[in-house]
Amino acid sequence: MDIRIKNRRIANAYYNLGLERAGHRDLTGAVAALKKSLRFDKFQTDARNLLGLIYLEIGEAGAAMIQWVISLNLQEQDNLAEEYLHAVHASRSYLEAADQAAKKYNQALQYAKNDNEDLAVLLLMRMLDEFPNYVKAQELLAVLYIHHEDYIKAGSCLYQVLKVDHYNPTAQRYMAVAKRNTGRAEVEKRKLKNAFSHRQMQDDDIIIPPSYKENTGWQSVLNILTGLVLGAMVIFFLVMPAKTESLNAMHNQEQVANLEIINQKSIEIDQLNKDIETAKAAREQAETQLASLVSDNGGVLSQYQNLVKILEAYRTEDARTAALLYVSTDMNVLNDGVLDNTVAWIHADMAENGWQTLLAMGDEAMNGSGGPAQAIDYYNKSLQIRPGNTEVIYKLGLAYAALEDTDTANQYFGDIIMNYPDSEYADDAKEQRGY
Amino acid sequence: MLDFETEITRFKPSLEVGEVEEAIVREDLTDMTDLMVEFLKGSKE
What we know:
The complex is a heterodimer of chains A (435) and B (45).
Chain A (H helix, E strand, L loop, with lengths): L2 H21 L3 H14 L4 H13 L3 H14 L5 H11 L1 H22 L3 H14 L4 H13 L3 H14 L4 H14 L1 H13 L20 H78 L5 H16 L3 H9 L12 H28 L3 H15 L4 H13 L3 H14 L6 H8 L2
Chain B lengths: L3 H7 L9 H7 L5 H13 L1
């Protein structure tokens, strides 16, 4: 017999086997048979088309398309693959969804392999809502659930798989694990044992239908009581929980509303407290300002009083009092704009004459009854108006020397020697220091 | 009990629709007839 014919027959036999298995929804078995059929005869178009259909059924749209495209290439006429491809292409949304599903499955597989099992589970769960027939994805999800010891969910996935592919060996293996861990295997085993443990019927055995029951008067009463008890139980277990749940829900809603009101009030209280704090701070600031205005020495009011006294001294041509008052007045706070010209005039006069008046008062004190201590005070005030005046610094040194405070005196002489070496008092200062 | 690590290695990626064209090119279509013809050719030579 020709090799081709022999191979074709074998291929046909495998195709028939695959077809039968597919009819019993043994899709894994059918795929194996159909692949063998194609291995013997690649032109077995029916086998290839059926293989594509099975792939589509288990969610593998890409693999299905491959088989149909090849099938159409090998047999261009009278080929069902053309219809299948048209149908798939016509439903763009299905094709896109199937592609997305494959991508998500691949992504989930990556996650699972890289210890991101939670992400893999999430991705598969969402994808399988749309594609429950995706066998590989259901199996992967089942493995992940088994790994997390969630055998009930794993069983649910495997149930889906076995609904599509009744004898899927992988799913059966996983299902055995799931059943063993949920106790389901034991229950099934018991059922199976009971099914085969019945003794053979004898001729005199009577079969009483399960619906037949003899009712006596007591039994009727008992039945009524049972009915009442059952009714009460229904109310207690079914109606009451629903009612309680609805009351709880209402109560929860009220609580949420109350909590919202409390939150709102808390926010308002916080805001009011902040306002009180702000008001307190403003009051304290105002009190501080007021205190600074009315305080005896440094207060603004005192400075204005001093200014009035300075002007009065000028009016009476008492330059000494004016100079003494000037040095004890903080002219910087008198900046209300009204007296700017007056203040500027006083500054100018003091810069020109005030320091000399105080120097002269210092000299008088040195030579008169005031003594060096009084002179030091006047000299310092003169320096306050005109800092760096070497004559005054030198005389301060002399005043301290007269008080036998040599250290301080030397500081003043040293100041001239170091900082004003070209001044006319530099030589005198050196002489005082003994250079 | 299943060994998760072993089981996970058994799962292979699915074919995406965009990869169909490439996969068709890669598909090995050699059947038994091709092999035998090839074998007979070789033995005659």
